[in-house]
Write a structure and sequence with these properties.
Elements (H helix, E strand, L loop, with lengths): L2 E5 L2 E4 L4 E8 L7 E7 L5 E7 L5 E3 L7 E6 L4 E6 L8 E8 L12 E2 L3 E6 L1
Parallel strand pairs: 2-11
Antiparallel strand pairs: 1-3, 3-8, 4-5, 4-9, 5-6, 7-8, 9-10, 9-11
Length: 122
């Protein structure tokens, strides 16, 4: 069983930056795909970014050029650096993991963290 714990959310002004962290424990972390999803008020949970075991990265169009995902296998941690934040980035951000390759579908991810709130004020 894999446990995921997110941290780093908070309140920031538009144009600001935050870095989210997702610490994994309980099983091998170095394989599989780690993803960040977000769910805004009244919205679906959508993929933001993902990174696979070989370091391949994927980004939603809405965050390309502003967000950056990375993973440190030695620390069992995946990060989401968020720059130039906009009010529309306000959401609960979730870390997720799956044993296979990249997928944009939340239903393909077996393991989930509890989520961390990111609020961007105008």
């Amino acid at each position: 069983q894999l446990q995921l714990v997110e941290s780093g959310g908070g309140l920031v002004q538009a144009g600001g930056s935050l870095r989210l962290s997702c610490a994994a424990s309980g099983r091998t972390f170095s394989s599989g795909t780690m993803g960040w999803f977000r769910q805004g008020p009244g919205k679906e949970r959508d993929v933001v970014a993902a990174i696979n075991w070989s370091g391949g990265k994927y980004y939603a169009d809405s965050v390309k050029g502003r967000f950056s995902i990375s993973r440190d296998n030695a620390k069992n941690t995946v990060y989401l650096q968020m720059n130039s934040l906009k009010p529309e980035d306000t959401a609960v951000y979730y870390c997720a993991a799956r044993s296979g390759g990249y997928s944009s579908l939340q239903y393909d991810y077996r393991y989930w963290g509890q989520g961390t709130q990111v609020t961007v004020s105008a």
